[in-house]
Specification:
The protein is of the alpha/beta class. Helices cover 30% and strands 10% of the residues. The termini are far apart.
Length: 282
């Protein structure tokens, strides 16, 4: 695991901190970093550039002169793109340039960029970034002591600490080439743009926890889906009743169909008897 010396604001070594190998010891992946930077810049575009088409520009819609007989070019409207003051063809229109990038890819780009800054020696860990008051002079003096600025030039510095440190935020907001963010606001563009990274000891612990690859695999309930309870289960389908097979047809030795063993219907009364009973009832 990589180790970095911890310094105070007087640039004196007071100890060492061990960085997570899974966060600060990753190989450089230029393609992934490039994709993350392009995604960050695309999401930051306002996308409000616009041009007027022939339906947007002002002007009459009537035909200025007749189609034939004038010797001039035919014209339908002053707003035609062929004429001065007419509309624009295929010009830019307001649109949304943002697109989503997978979370694992964004975090992987951050880990790769931070690891490269560690290998370059451009990552500085400070024990505590505390100032007596919000004074820009004290902040610039601390940068000079740490070797991040001098009279001729000042390195682009990104400071990662808690935004609750009001003295640090107020002291640095008027200093050029310097930016203060917290661990949750860290992005790939700031890491690439700034040459030096200054982290507090607390910020190192937060980044170790936020960018840990093991954290990405953990989901609610460990990513497992529990089986539905028996009460919510769909009722089992009843088995269908089997249809009785039709009686087989038997053949006699002569080849005729044998009569089936079917009970004969009850005998109906004769027609005469039915008529006589009806007359007696009448």
């Amino acid at each position: 695991m990589p180790t970095v010396k911890v310094r105070n604001l007087q640039n004196k070594e007071i100890g060492e901190v061990t960085l997570s190998d899974a966060v600060f010891g990753v190989e450089l992946n230029e393609g992934l970093i490039h994709a993350a930077v392009m995604n960050y810049r695309a999401n930051g575009r306002s996308g409000n550039s616009a041009t007027k088409t022939r339906g947007d520009v002002s002007g009459s819609g009537r035909k200025l002169w007749k189609q034939k007989g004038t010797g001039r070019a035919r014209i339908a409207s002053l707003r035609s793109p062929l004429w001065k003051g007419g509309g624009n063809v295929h010009g830019p229109q307001p649109r949304d340039w943002s697109y989503q990038m997978p979370k694992k890819m964004r975090r992987g780009a951050l880990r790769s960029a931070l690891s490269e800054r560690v290998r370059e020696g451009n990552l500085i860990v400070i024990d505590e970034l505390s100032f007596a008051g919000p004074r820009t002079k004290d902040f610039i003096g601390a940068l000079n002591t740490l070797g991040l600025a001098d009279k001729n030039a000042r390195a682009k510095t990104l400071i990662i600490d808690s935004l609750d440190n009001e003295n640090l935020v107020l002291s640095s907001r008027n200093v050029e080439k310097t930016k203060v963010v917290n661990s949750f606001g860290l992005n790939i563009y700031d890491i690439i743009y700034h040459e030096k990274l200054v982290l507090s000891r607390a910020a190192v612990e937060e980044l170790n926890d936020l960018l840990d690859p093991k954290r990405e695999g953990k989901g609610e309930g460990n990513g497992t889906v529990e089986a539905a309870p028996a009460a919510d289960a769909a009722p089992a389908k009843k088995p269908r009743a089997k249809k009785e097979a039709a009686p087989a047809v038997e053949l006699t030795p002569e080849g005729d169909i044998a009569p089936l063993d079917v009970e004969a219907p009850a005998e109906l009364p004769a027609i005469g008897e039915t008529t006589e009973e009806g007359e007696n009832n009448g």
